[in-house]
Design goal:
241 residues; seven-stranded antiparallel β-sheet; Jelly Rolls; mainly beta
């Protein structure tokens, strides 16, 4: 009888759902870069990309924030009225990392429109960076590209996903989406709304390390583009020397 009761208790303990949080895996790096823009105030030091028009990310109140607290980060290209804007967090350059953030994208049915994105391995000294961006116009797409002085700042597309390949389809209105970028051993995997985009990993052989940034531009002419982020979290697997 006593043995039966012991077995019964063990069985119940195994079958009941745990109320404890999942264990932290050994070796999981801490979040070394984070910004929730609480009360509309950036927590990090953000710098304008020196080779563009010095638009810089700022904080503001936006009650649509998916984090519940209404502070968000905002970058627009308003200084020169239509050219590319890039702002980066002034931390040590990262080589391998795991990034997660909320990204607010602008949607239009017109042929021209905004390009909203996250930049990484930003190297302001050598004037080069990678960027993952959403372009939700009449022909919606996501893209990963290299941009640098050596390309005259024209993007060299590493990967592109058209409407049929977009997880959940192309959005029909402006709003927030979850972006995750995983970089290891000079290769990137990209996740959109928690779904891995096909075709990866994507080789990153033009820049060894750099900063995390936010990107906004207008394609097909001159116009104002605005990119918002919230809940930025970056975990580093190593630092560049």
């Amino acid at each position: 009888m006593r043995r039966w009761l012991s077995l019964s208790i063990v069985w119940n303990m195994l079958m009941l759902p745990s109320c404890l949080p999942p264990p932290v895996m050994e070796g999981t790096p801490p979040a070394i870069i984070r910004d929730s823009f609480t009360n509309g105030t950036p927590e990090l030091a953000w710098r304008p990309y020196p080779h563009f028009n010095h638009d810089n990310l700022k904080g503001e109140i936006d009650r649509s924030s998916p984090e519940g607290e209404p502070g968000v980060g905002v970058l627009d290209n308003g200084i020169a009225g239509g050219f590319a804007a890039l702002s980066y967090a002034d931390n040590r350059p990262l080589e391998d990392f795991h990034l997660e953030t909320w990204l607010h994208v602008q949607v239009t049915a017109a042929e021209k429109g905004s390009l909203n994105g996250i930049a990484f391995r930003v190297d302001p000294g050598r004037d080069k960076y990678y960027r993952f961006a959403a372009h939700f116009t009449r022909e919606p797409s996501l893209s990963l590209a290299y941009v640098g002085k050596d390309t005259r700042h024209f993007p060299v597309i590493v990967a592109e996903w058209k409407a049929a390949a977009l997880p959940g389809g192309a959005p029909t209105q402006s709003g927030w989406h979850r972006v995750m970028i995983e970089v290891k051993n000079d290769a990137a995997e990209i996740f959109w709304d928690s779904i891995r985009l096909p075709g990866g990993p994507f080789q990153l052989d033009r820049i060894g390390s750099g900063h995390i940034g936010v990107y906004a531009t207008y394609t097909g002419g001159r116009g104002i583009a605005e990119t918002k982020i919230d809940g930025l979290r970056v975990r580093s697997y190593n630092f560049s020397p």
